[in-house]
UniProtKB/TrEMBL annotation:
Protein name as annotated: Uncharacterized protein
Source lineage: Bacteria, Bacillati, Actinomycetota, Actinomycetes, Pseudonocardiales
Organism domain of life: Bacteria
Length: 169
């Protein structure tokens, strides 16, 4: 990998991750204290790991608020929500990492790792597709306004501002 003078990598290769990769730690705005809270898979012994886990727990270290979420059932299946933003897909709370950007659009990320992926994608001069062509990756699904070169500077500035709001952990 080569570095440009501003320290950003020239080249970004799509790691072909899907959004669910980041969905097991979602930072949201706490409904009680407006601080940063987390939505995690419920740590029960019966729960499955990963995106199909039908139980989620909201917890706020700032005020101690907690809440549980269980997916609705249909016959023998859990109905897990479609992952999206700029609200969390389980409790419907505003994501912590979200900001208006580039003329009324909303830039959002589930957590620090997700934000870092967006940053490295936007900062790169050269964007390469990953080798595997399966279902669309997170990067391929990014909205056109965010992929647009004319929005690059403002989007990067927004990402860096959002990063300063991340809680230390
Ligand atoms: Zn709170």
């Amino acid at each position: 990998m080569t570095e440009t003078s501003d320290g950003q990598s020239d080249r970004f290769t799509d790691p072909l991750v899907r959004l669910w990769r980041y969905a097991d730690r979602i930072l949201v705005r706490c409904p009680k204290c407006a601080g940063c809270a987390s939505v995690l898979p419920e740590p029960t012994t019966t729960a499955r790991p990963g995106p199909s886990n039908p139980h989620r727990r909201l917890s706020c270290l700032g005020c101690g608020h907690t809440a549980g979420w269980t997916a609705p059932r249909h016959d023998n299946y859990w109905i897990v929500p479609e992952l999206n933003g700029p609200d969390d897909p389980y409790f419907g709370l505003p994501l912590w990492l979200r900001a208006e950007c580039c003329g009324g659009n909303v830039l959002w990320a589930y957590n620090a790792e997700h934000l870092a992926l967006l940053e490295s994608y936007l900062a790169a001069r050269l964007r390469e597709r990953g080798a595997y062509r399966g279902s669309m990756s997170l990067v391929e699904r990014l909205p056109a306004w965010l992929k647009s070169a004319k929005h690059r500077t403002e989007a990067l500035r927004t990402i860096r501002r959002l990063r300063t709001t991340l809680p230390a952990d």
